[in-house]
Amino acid sequence: MSDTQAEPRRTRLSAVWLIPLAAALIGLWLVFSYLSSQGPVITLKLTDAEGINAGKTPVKTRNVQVGLVESVRLSDDMSHTLLTVQMQSDTDRMLAEDTRFWVVKPRISREGVSGLNTVLSGSYIELMPGESGKKGKRFQVQDTPPPEKTGAGLFLKLVSEAGTNVDVGDPVHFRSLKVGRVVETRFNASDKRFHHRIFIQKPYDVLVSDSSRFWQVNGLGFQLDARGFQAQIHSLEALIGGGITFAVPDGNMRAGDPVKDEREFTLHNDEESARRALYTDTLDYVLLVESSVRGLKTGAPVEYRGIRVGTVEQVAWGFAQSGPGTISSAPIPVLISLEPQRITHQSREDTQRWRQEIDRMIDDGLRASLKPGNLLTGALFVDLDFHADTPAANSGERYADVAVFPTIDSGGISKIEDKIQQLLDTLNNLPMESIAGNLNRNLDNLAGTTQRLEALLADPALNALPERLTGTLGALEGTLQGWQTGGDGYLQLQGTLQKLDRLLNDAEPLLDTLNRQPNALIFQRQPAPDPQPRGSRQ
To answer: Which phi and psi angles does 249 have, rounded to 5°?
Structure first.
């Protein structure tokens, strides 16, 4: 055997294997790139999937796509729809527990018209990032967009009775100036009231004080009551969806102190209710009305010589509380509330001093009466005024432990109704049948007279009468022209009168002689002797 042995042959890696190795490395890099570019997978819950398509519907925030709907399926109980959404990378910071989702599609709401750009592109899901520190994987898709970002300002709570027409997004006004919006509304079944949350943006938050009152407004309102006809017209936005306004309803009332966040107020139905809420110091009285109270409503004004000083709280308050046997004899009680703060415009009043003063005025003849405030509607109000020669009031009289305010019957609309009823009764008692019979007979006689007149007018002799009458009038006119000044008849008459005048002048001596001596025509009158001087007769 030779000392020199052949070395073993070494195997060398073929260059062919570099190709699949490079492909594998590229594939791993693509998988890594794909996985690194993907974000978390979340589940969205919504009522129905209208306008949502798997693989097409994007999830956006500020018009930037941050996810895509991968699948759409029904829940196990088929009560709602579940969406599986693949989010993009770096979206974990958006997915907090308070993150909100909603479907963007064409909408017409109180906020205006939105989502018109989806008419051609299709609906998409909008995301509003949350601020909570806890992450979330399952979210509820809202039916409507959330309210806009509030920014700096003041949050307040409002409580209202059931039936208030206020919704999220409604405007909040201060004397027709838009200063905020409603950001939350919910109904509490336990107290059967609505709880609202509103936001007042800066710098208008300083307008809210502890004396402010909030009330609901409608775009267009009409009211016809004892105070007359009233119309309210607000902004176009309020006309479409209503809203809330606030102020100190009584302009002379103190403005009040500033309030802090989350202060709770009552939301009233109208401005009058809000104004009444300012008057906390009141005096209650009962009117015992003997006449009808038809037309007197709760909320009607109580006035003193035209100035409102109170409000009717309840009509027929505790009526017939002693039993049905008292209905025919008992007067109708009306509960009223006098509000001195309407007069003084102060935040507090000494009600005891006011009661003493009112008692003194009652002793001086102050009485209450019902008067018509609007003849069209028949609405009544309570009028307070002094009346001379009224019977003294029974001081200290009370009804159901409430002081009685003395009343008088002022007549008013009830007296007018009585007179109208008396007139109607008189008309009903008239012998209408006899009057109708006489009227028919008179009409028949008139018809006969008309027929005879028509026959007379048809007579030819009567038809020729106008022509003959015209000739006669012409002849009379010619005769009268002859007697005018300068006419023949006038000259003859004038000559005759002159001759008659001369004849009378000539006959005047004869008439004088006959007047002195009636027999002068038979016996010759003896001349009177000549007068003799007085001396010759001696």
So the answer is: -55, -35
Phi, psi dihedrals of residue 100, rounded to the nearest 5°: -115, 140
Model's pTM, two decimal places?
A: 0.52
**3-class state of residue 501 by DSSP:** helix
3-state secondary structure 85-146: EEEECCCHHHCECCCEEEEECCEEECCEEECCCHHHHCCEEEEECCCCCCECCEEEEECCCC
CA end-to-end span of the chain: 257
Residues 51-85 have pLDDT tens digits of: 888 989 999 998 899 999 999 999 888 888 999 99
Q: 339, 390, 399, 400: which is closest to 361 by C-alpha?
A: 390
Structure tokens, 175: 């004397």
- What does the alpha-carbon distance between residue 148 and residue 132 come to, in Å, rounded to a whole number? 18
**The tokens 């579940």 sit on which residue?**
82
Would you report the helix, strand and coil content of the chain in percent, each value rounded to 5?
Answer: 30, 30, 35
**Which among 125, 129, 116 has a CA at the least distance from the CA of 58?**
125
Measured between alpha carbons, how far is 67 from 478 in angstroms, rounded to an integer?
A: 122
Reported as a single tens digit per residue, the pLDDT across 430-461 is: 787 888 888 888 888 888 888 887 777 777 77
**pLDDT at residue 284, rounded to an integer:** 93
Give the 3-state secondary structure of residue 394.
coil
DSSP per position, 439-461 = HHHHHHHHHHHHHHHHHHHT-HH
417 vs 295: CA distance, rounded Å? 13
What does the radius of gyration of the chain's CA atoms come to, in whole angstroms?
A: 55
The number of beta carbons lying within 10 Å of the beta carbon of residue 93 is: 9
CB 494 within 8 A of CB 484: no
How far, CA to CA in Å, does 397 sit from each of 111, 327, 402, 445? 58, 20, 9, 71
Tens digits of per-residue pLDDT, 157-180?
999 887 677 888 788 988 878 898
How crowded is residue 343: how many other Cβ atoms within 10 Å of its Cβ?
14
Strands (E) in 316-374, as ranges, are 332-338, 366-374
